[in-house]
Amino acid sequence: MGEAKRRNETGKPADRKTGGGKTGVIVAVVLLVVALVAGVFWVTQPPEPEAESLPVAAANAEPFPAELDRFGVSIGDADAPVVVREFADFQCPACGRFAEASAQLKDEYVSSGKVRFVFFDLPLGQHQNAMPAAMAARCAGDQEGYWAMHDRIFANQTEWSNSSVASEIFARYARELGLEERRFSRCMESELHREVIENSVEVAKRIRVTSTPTVLVDSVKLSRPGWGQLSAVVERELGTRSE
Fold first, then answer.
1. Of 107, 37, 106, 55, which is closest to residue 225 (Cα–Cα)?
2. In a 3-state reduction of DSSP, which class is residue 148?
3. pTM for the full model?
C-alpha cells in the first residue's frame, strides 16, 4: 500500500521504525547518564561516621609502630589525635586519584591540628619511574619542597609515567617550583635518598602491605580509599578520642 493511500485510509502516516528506535536509544542514554551521575554522587558522599558499612580495625590489630614513621614523610602536629598513613607508588594511577583526597585531608584536618599525615613510599617493581619519582620528591624535600613536588608529580602523572626521560621532567618541575636546580640534580644523580625509600618499602613488608594505595587511619585500613570513606573514618576516630 502506498504512503498516500495509507494516509487516506488510516488518517496517519506509516509507522517509521527507525524513528522509534532512535527515541529508545536516546532514552537509554539519558537513563545511563542519570545512573552514572547518581553512582558517582553515592560513591563520593562521606558516609555517616557511625555507619555500619565503615571499616573497623581488625580484632587482633596492633597499633602502628610509631617509630617507623621516620621512614615516611610527615606533615601536621606531632601530637595530633589521629594519624593517617598512606603507602603509595607515584606511578600508580589509583594513588594519583587518591592524591586529591590526601590534599583535602591536609586542608581540612592536618592544618587544624586534628590529623597528622604520613606518606610512605612503596614503588612497585613493574613501574620503572616510581623510584625516580620518589627520589625526586625526597630531593625536593631537602629544599623544603617535598609536598609541592609530591603534588606536582601526582598532578602530572600521565606526562612522566611512561617517559624515558622522567628525571629530566622532574628537574623541570624543580625549576618551576623555584628549587635550586643544581642541588636537586646532584641529589638525584647520587640517589641520595634511595636507602630511606628502601627502608620505607621494608616498613610496608613488615606490616604486610602489598598494594597501593593502602591507607590506614590509626589502625583502620580503608577498604575504599577516597575522600568519602577517609573523612568519615577520620571523623569517627576523632569522636572516639573526645569521649
1. 55
2. helix
3. 0.79
